[in-house]
Specification:
With 432 residues, this protein is of the alpha+beta class. It has 11 helices and 18 strands. The strands form 6 sheets. It has a 5-stranded antiparallel β-sheet with strand order 2-15-4-11-12, with no helix packed on it. The protein has a 3-stranded antiparallel β-sheet with strand order 3-14-13, with no helix packed on it.
Length: 432
């Protein structure tokens, strides 16, 4: 799974380098999975055999198509979720009186829980990671004897050994930078960096845990070379074994009551996901509430429009680079063209490239005069767009340049597993 994840994230667009977060709409029940399976079987029976372009641009484009389609489908699914309150486009949106200090996301009302109208929160202390800052050493010198060294980092119940070699050509800074890169690439939940003292110019290797908080007072990680397989002494020389800043829990007042949390992001009453950004004054608490209905509906419509436009722009960004000529743009924009008159009447203007522009004044006017009618005008558009998006998700390779090898026999069609294996197979062809 790690290999698949690494390859997939390598080909994802830079804008999504932080990796797309999954949500409840990425999961499926048995009937949904069965419908997807049946759709794939029908599609494979009707599709010809072909050879597709195998350049990196083609790989990146196919994955981007899949990702954008997933994002759009999740946005559309959120607008029709039965367990969300309000009308079709009227789910509640949380708002903060001081977003620089505290932000919140409304997750929906859980069955058996009361709907909170809002709450006050004051931040006394942010959750913090453990930090080990090593000795500040002259960057162009080295007193560590050339040899093969190793040390262990114990974190999360696991132990990771790091081995490195010191030669006569090395300096303190080259060793620190090499270890920093080695630790960061290992992806073990520890971030490393080389710090420079402004006054002396000396450098130090610093290690910081991704995790925050503490429950038993024990350190989140330990660095030692007591039982290393190579020479020891590097930990003491670099000074990375000593804790310079202990991890700590977040401390906050919720409607006057003191609480703690191991992370700066947590849920309240299973309805809000709250993120703390900085400490606040107890006399000026942050108020978390809900946006007005018109603002909520308007924001949801804009989010749907933003995701739709992202699909349109994707096709243009790869124009002339081994993709089917504007096929994705034509397929997606055909939905907006089909509903152009309805959309323009409520402030969603269709442009020449197929994207949608929001006329804020007209949208606000239509929502103010008759919100229900405005929402009803969007139902057919949303439903048609959902169907088209699901088609794109099933086979993103449809939009990559390819040569037809053989058409299916119209009298004797059969399910073709080759068709659905292309998308995953192209990753391993490049990676292995």
């Amino acid at each position: 799974m790690n290999a698949i994840s690494n390859v997939y994230n390598y080909y994802m667009p830079s804008a999504q380098a932080g990796r797309r977060q999954t949500n409840k709409y990425d999961t499926h029940n048995k009937s949904e999975l069965k419908n997807i399976y049946n759709s794939i079987v029908r599609m494979s029976k009707e599709s010809p055999l072909y050879i597709f372009d195998q350049s990196k641009n083609a790989y990146k484009f196919a994955i981007n198509v899949k990702e954008e389609a997933c994002e759009l489908k999740n946005t559309l699914s959120a607008l029709t979720a039965e367990d969300d309150s309000g009308s079709l486009f009227g789910q509640k949106i949380a708002t903060s009186s001081n977003p620089d200090a505290v932000t919140a996301q409304y997750l929906g009302q859980k069955s058996g829980t009361d709907m909170p109208e809002g709450f006050e929160i004051s931040v006394e202390q942010l959750a913090a990671p453990q930090v080990n800052t090593g000795n500040y050493l002259p960057p162009n010198r080295l007193k560590l004897i050339p040899n093969n060294y190793a040390f262990d980092i114990q974190s999360g119940g696991l132990s990771y050994e790091f081995q490195f070699r010191v030669s006569h050509q090395d300096t303190n800074q080259t060793i620190q930078e090499r270890l920093s890169s080695l630790i960061n690439k290992s992806n073990i939940g520890i971030k490393a960096a080389v710090l420079t003292d402004e006054d002396s110019g000396f450098t130090a290797l610093s290690l910081s845990s991704d995790a925050t908080g503490t429950s038993d007072g024990k350190p989140l990680f330990r660095v030692t070379d007591e039982h290393s397989s190579q020479a020891s002494g590097a930990v003491d020389y670099l000074g990375i074994g000593k804790i310079t800043s202990d991890s700590q829990n977040a401390v906050f007042l919720l409607d006057g009551d003191r609480h703690t949390a191991a992370s700066n992001t947590f849920t309240i009453n299973q309805s809000f996901e709250v993120t703390l950004h900085r400490e606040t004054n107890d006399m000026e608490p942050t108020i978390i509430g809900f946006k007005a209905d018109i603002d909520t509906v308007s924001d949801n419509i804009r989010e749907m429009t933003r995701q739709y436009n992202s699909m349109i722009r994707l096709s243009g960004s790869y124009a002339g680079k081994t993709i089917q000529d504007n096929l994705l743009q034509k397929n997606i924009s055909s939905v907006a063209k089909q509903h152009a008159n309805t959309l323009e009447a409520i402030g969603l203007q269709l442009t020449t490239d197929g994207s949608l522009e929001v006329d804020d004044q007209l949208l606000t006017q239509s929502l103010t005069e008759d919100m229900n009618e405005t929402i009803e005008s969007l139902i057919d558009f949303k439903s048609t767009l959902m169907d088209k998006t699901e088609e794109v998700m099933l086979n993103p390779m449809d939009y990559v340049d390819k040569k037809i090898v053989a058409y299916p026999n119209p009298g004797k069609t059969f399910a073709n597993p080759y068709l659905t294996s292309i998308y995953s197979g192209m990753l391993f062809n490049s990676y292995c």
